[in-house]
Design a protein that fits this description.
Layout: E1 2-4, E2 10-12, H1 16-19, H2 26-29, H3 40-54, E3 61-62, E4 65-66, H4 73-85, H5 89-115, H6 117-129, H7 131-137, H8 143-159, H9 167-183, H10 188-201, H11 209-233, H12 235-238, H13 240-249, H14 260-267, H15 272-286, H16 290-308
Length: about 325
């Protein structure tokens, strides 16, 4: 069976790249009925169940009251799975499992493009074996979908070529709006972090009609959702989206010092954090191409932005 890749080359469906991912099967072997975790997972499950029961796909609700303290993209996806497969623990976790696979594939192909198959498999295996990744793979929250959307967006951006116009142009613009629908204003942190890469290596994107079309298409669902919500519930209710941003950016229960991630990230990536020190140093000294922006500048800028954001949690 044949398929055509965006690059124009053909290959078999059961290609070596696909077979290499057989090791992710254990992700799905751990599916079983269990109680939902407090607090966020239970919150999203209740909102998704409310969508299915009430037929109101417009507003996230809490005890029948519309609450716009977060976006609704993940609730739509979970509710869709509950609608099709029934209200079970298994159906509610399908989205996170699927997006986890997307994240693994994106990591593999991103690393393969710059470093080859062997290091790509190593990178993907490290991600898969990271406890925090496995944990959130089995949680019905926003985090795994957001990770997948960011990685697909970055992979699309690095595959855009000035001489060859393809669907990557479209995807490189779409992910931003879709990310807002999933995670709200937090999507602007990875967007800001990737801007240096766009301006230094992909500036021609800004004059591409296909990129701009993708950018607009990505924000259309957000615009329609907010417009219909304001019409139905009024601006004061919907403006809670901005209130949540102000709350998270100020002092709260989750406020930590400016150096929180400087010890938190290494802690949750042991032992790989020790190996990354030499790799980071090597990249800064030797890379003068796209690798510098994708694998050094982007994660460092994103970490700095997260450190500036007063609300700090492990899953951020």
């Amino acid at each position: 069976m044949k398929f055509v890749r965006f690059g124009g080359r053909q290959g078999t469906f059961f290609s070596k790249e696909i077979l290499n991912f057989l090791f992710v099967i254990p992700l799905f072997l751990s599916i079983c009925s269990r109680s939902f975790m407090a607090h966020d997972e239970g919150y999203y499950i209740l909102q998704s169940r409310a969508i299915v029961d009430s037929g109101n796909w417009l507003a996230p609700t809490s005890w029948g009251i519309p609450v716009f303290d977060r976006s609704i993209g993940v609730q739509w996806i979970i509710a869709g799975c509950q609608k099709v497969f029934g209200y079970t623990s298994w159906s509610s976790h399908i989205p996170s499992l699927v997006f986890a696979l997307v994240s693994l594939f994106s990591t593999y192909f991103l690393a393969k493009r710059f470093f080859g198959k062997q290091l790509a498999m190593t990178s993907t295996g490290i991600l898969l074996l990271s406890p925090i990744f496995l944990d959130y793979t089995h949680l019905a929250t926003q985090d795994m979908p957001l990770l997948a959307i960011e990685l697909v967006g970055i992979y699309s951006l690095v595959n855009v070529e000035k001489e060859k116009v393809n669907l990557y142009y479209l995807f490189s613009g779409m992910w931003m709006g879709i990310g807002f629908l999933v995670k709200g204003f937090m999507i602007f942190l990875p967007i800001l972090a990737i801007i240096p890469f766009i301006f230094w290596t992909k500036r021609y994107l800004l004059s591409s009609k296909l990129f701009l079309a993708g950018f607009i298409i990505g924000w259309i669902p957000v615009t329609i959702w907010i417009a219909l919500s304001v019409h139905e519930y009024g601006f004061e209710v919907v403006s809670e989206l901005f209130g949540k941003l102000i709350y998270l950016s100020g002092d709260s229960t989750f406020s930590e010092g400016p150096f929180y991630y400087l010890w938190n990230i290494p802690l949750f990536t042991i032992p790989w954090c020790f190996f990354s020190i030499n790799s980071l140093s090597y990249g800064i000294r030797n890379w003068r191409d796209e690798r510098l922006f994708v694998f050094v500048v982007y994660p460092l800028v994103l970490t700095v932005l997260l450190c500036c954001f007063k609300t700090k949690t492990t899953y951020y």
